[in-house]
Design brief:
Number of domains: 5
Largest sheet: 7 strands, antiparallel
Helix content: under 10%
Structural class: mainly beta
Number of helices: 3
Shape: flat
Radius of gyration: 35 Å
Strand content: 35-45%
Oligomer: single chain
């Protein structure tokens, strides 16, 4: 019986496909694993427990607007303010008395009684002081249950006189369902000497359990200190400030896109644009007017390119007609130009009495102007040297100016007269009728749009340095750009602005060269196609990452100097079954020598795949994340990852919590921040001050903020005096609406208590293949693991093939003790599970304990 040994001290190839089990000829085989679940590889070669997720908040609850009610009542007194009167949700009349608001508390508006509902938001539209000169004043929102006694509910942000504001006030839960009456009050204590106020509209929203939750999260990174997580729902944008250590809610923003939440966003300086093909782009501005808040509006685009859709929805064209008189420029050889709507034609040459030649000369030159289509221009000699030009069909436009002028020969003017202005069949390329841009990116000094709803193959760019102006007239270098990506399945999925502008379509990848109308071109590079508008392309280390059209492969779009072109390199070929119909993707860049770049991909089944990559070190290793809770709770299988986004280089996710019933509401969706400082999912940490135990600091009950009643795990670390062990796994238990009860013994513990949902880490190396003879190995032979040693750092709670190792054998007064994490060698003399052709013990950590594996040494009999 042959004896051999095998040492694996590198796991950077991550989890490999079943198809690699026979590939002992490649180095990746001996650096990979056949199972890598809830772990991540590290650049130094090891593999460790994945990051947990810190619970930030539940996703915002769904709301509906109170409508069908006259919920704005005007105060009937001498100090009526300037306002717009709202009746049944409609703007009815404008009253302007410009009276001064003085004296006692002044009621600006009140709501009459309505159905008892849980109020959520009160929105004030275009609220502004109308006093002359700069003024500012403060107001309160108050509520009442009887329309007599009023209680302050919330402060209103300062209202100014130099610009109108849209303000959303969060009154969630204040006053309960009995608070039927609400009002806006200017307090008598206000410091302003006088105030006149104007409000265009007020809307009141209430929470509703009957709406299916619908969210979208995006990043708005303005600067290191001003980075924001935006959580969109059909009526609101919850704004969270993200720092290196915390994610904190700071604001709610009103919006009314309904279920059409932005699929993509583009950020430039302090402005974010959000895109959805069914709604106009929305704009969010940071520090608007120096208020330190985010404001939202709809940008006004200039010179939207025109397109002739030529269908039943197109405008009915009316021919444009004008005349030019060449009486003083009839001599053959005289030269002149025509200017239409500010665009000059090429130079024309007179033909004296050859009228048919002159007609064709004018027709051809006008038809060639960029204002017109391929046909539809006709010219007729009317009398003398007067010519009538008719622009019909696809060349019909609306004439604003027509001029003609000599460039050589002749004397006097060339009269040009508009007979019929005309109506064009062309229309704005995006509009309420045709839909809106689907994606966008700021790059090369322009704003680029990757297709519109009705023209999904069209790539558009703004004027250079003028992001809202898409003027396309004379082909000047700074003018806008518009051209179509030709070919089958050329619908644009995304536009990337990393190293240049790259266009990703359903069937191919393009590199855009040139940056002027004369030089712009899109050159096809590879032919893989992109999967979905829901999964954005990502820039990392100078490459662009995208999911290919099959939804099963992660590609790296990178320039190759040997080919002088871009290549799409398959990063997931060795883990071919890891990615399945993904729904979202983002990246986190390395922030220390112990970290790599992490590419986080959420699969359609709610699991995640994480690529640990450092291209300069040739490190590419996939591992899998799941939220299989492995608890005894009946009816709870696993929680799912729904969406992800990186803000300030911190990955945030929305997790959907499983539940016994099939009906979900906002409390089942958790906004979480991924962190190696947390060892569980959707977890909260509670640290007792120095010298205090948990009971003194928090009492017998701890509120996690989770509004669920589910089984959770508890872990105490960092100073568990008076016990000798400072890392303790406490007994699992149920929480009641997010509240966890501690026993007396647990209250006596010191340090940090973490409460959350545990996950199980699993590692299994590839089938062991050691040298058997000259050039052969025992990959397919019968063999047995006699002994194995593991080198670990800060690790505890390890099982080998389901058997606890020695470091987790202690208990103390009912606590399941993980003991202090071990650094060094864990020995296992029990070996594997007997003789087999595929032997490789499975290493698991099934409790909320740290795990960092550096190497495994096997002793093999074969």
């Amino acid at each position: 019986m042959a004896k051999s040994s095998f040492l694996q001290n590198n796991f950077t190839s991550g989890e490999l496909s079943e198809l690699i089990k026979g590939r002992t000829d490649i180095d990746q085989y001996f650096k990979g694993m056949q199972l890598a679940e809830n772990v991540v590889t590290v650049p130094q070669g090891g593999v460790k427990r994945r990051m947990g997720t810190e619970f930030i908040s539940h996703a915002p609850d769904m709301t509906q607007m109170i409508n069908g009610l006259p919920f704005i009542d005007m105060p009937n007194n001498a100090n009526t303010v300037e306002h717009a009167y709202l009746q049944n949700g409609n703007l009815e009349a404008q009253v302007s008395t410009n009276a001064t608001v003085t004296g006692a508390d002044y009621v600006v508006w009140t709501t009459p009684t309505n159905t008892s509902t849980h109020k959520k938001y009160i929105d004030l539209f275009q609220i502004q002081l109308t006093d002359t000169g700069y003024q500012e004043d403060t107001f309160d929102i108050e509520y009442s249950t009887d329309n007599a006694t009023w209680v302050k509910a919330a402060d209103v942000p300062t209202v100014y006189s130099d610009f109108p504001q849209n303000i959303r006030i969060n009154v969630d839960g204040i006053g309960g369902t009995a608070a039927d009456y609400w009002r806006l009050v200017r307090k008598a204590s206000s410091t302003a000497g006088y105030t006149r106020i104007k409000i265009a509209e007020v809307r009141v929203f209430f929470t509703s359990a009957g709406i299916t939750p619908n969210y979208k999260i995006h990043s708005f990174d303005v600067s290191k200190t001003d980075s924001f997580l935006l959580v969109f729902d059909p009526n609101n944008i919850a704004v969270y400030r993200v720092t290196d250590t915390a994610t904190t809610k700071v604001q709610d923003l009103m919006h009314y896109n309904g279920s059409d939440l932005p699929d993509r966003v583009a950020v430039n300086e302090n402005v974010l644009l959000g895109f959805h093909e069914n709604k106009p782009p929305m704009r969010i501005i940071h520090d608007f007017n120096g208020l330190g808040r985010l404001e939202i509006d709809t940008p006004t685009f200039q010179n939207i390119p025109q397109f002739d859709y030529n269908d039943s929805q197109s405008p009915t064209p009316t021919s444009a007609v004008f005349t030019i008189d060449l009486q003083h420029h009839k001599t053959t050889g005289n030269r002149y130009k025509i200017e239409i709507n500010g665009i000059e034609s090429k130079t024309l040459t007179s033909s004296d009495t050859a009228y048919t030649v002159q007609e064709e000369e004018i027709r051809r030159t006008v038809q060639d102007m960029p204002l017109f289509g391929d046909n539809g221009v006709s010219v007729s000699h009317t009398s003398g040297h007067l010519y009538t030009v008719t622009c019909a069909g696809e060349s019909a436009i609306t004439l604003t100016t027509v001029l003609a002028f000599a460039t050589s020969g002749g004397t006097g003017d060339i009269p040009a007269i508009i007979i019929t202005a005309g109506v064009s069949r062309k229309e704005d390329i995006w509009s309420a009728t045709r839909g809106y841009p689907r994606s966008g990116v700021f790059a090369n000094g322009r704003l680029w749009f990757g297709g519109t709803k009705s023209k999904p193959q069209n790539l558009l760019a703004s004027k250079a340095g003028s992001f809202l102006d898409f003027e396309i007239d004379q082909g000047l270098d700074d003018e806008g750009l518009s051209f179509t990506i030709n070919g089958s399945k050329s619908k644009i999925i995304d536009v990337s602005g990393g190293r240049g502008v790259h266009v990703f379509t359903e069937s191919a990848e393009y590199n855009v060269t040139g940056n002027t109308p004369a030089t712009i071109t899109a050159e096809q590079q590879t032919q893989h196609g992109s999967f979905s508008v829901d999964v954005p392309t990502m820039s990392l280390d100078g490459a662009t990452l995208f999911i290919d059209g099959t939804g099963r492969s992660l590609k790296q779009f990178l320039f190759n100097f040997n080919e002088n072109a871009y290549r799409s390199i398959d990063l997931s070929v060795l883990a071919s079954k890891a990615i399945v119909n993904p729904v979202d993707m983002d990246v986190v860049s390395a922030v220390s020598a112990e970290d790599a770049n992490y590419v986080f991909i959420i699969n359609g089944d709610g699991t995640a795949v994480v690529l640990n990559t450092l291209r300069e070190q040739d490190i590419n290793g996939f591992t899998r994340f799941n939220q299989d809770r492995d608890t005894l709770e009946v009816g709870i299988d696993f929680d799912t990852f729904e969406q992800c986004v990186t803000v300030n280089n911190v990955l945030h996710v929305i997790t959907k919590l499983d539940k016994h019933s099939g009906t979900f509401d906002h409390e089942d969706y958790c906004i979480c921040r991924m962190s190696f400082d947390h060892i569980m999912d959707c977890s909260k940490k509670f640290t007792a001050p120095t010298g205090q135990n948990l009971g003194t600091a928090f009492g017998s009950t701890v509120d996690t903020g989770l509004k669920n009643s589910r089984e959770v795990q508890l872990y105490v670390r960092g100073g568990a005096t008076p016990l000798t062990d400072d890392h303790l796994v406490l007994t699992d238990r149920y929480m009641n609406n997010g509240v966890v009860t501690l026993t007396a013994d647990e209250q006596a513990l010191y340090g940090t208590l973490e409460i959350g949902y545990n996950f199980v880490s699993k590692v299994k190396t590839m089938p062991i293949a050691t040298a058997k003879g000259s050039g052969a190995n025992n990959n397919l032979s019968q063999k047995r693991v006699d002994k194995m040693n593991m080198r670990v750092v800060e690790t505890s709670g390890v099982k080998i093939d389901g058997v606890l190792t020695e470091v987790r054998q202690d208990t103390y007064d009912g606590f399941l003790s993980s003991s202090k994490p071990t650094t060094g060698i864990i020995e296992d003399s029990n070996g594997g599970n007997g003789w087999n052709r595929e032997v490789a013990p499975e290493i698991t950590v099934d409790g909320p304990t740290p795990f960092n594996l550096l190497a495994i040494d096997y002793e093999i009999s074969s």
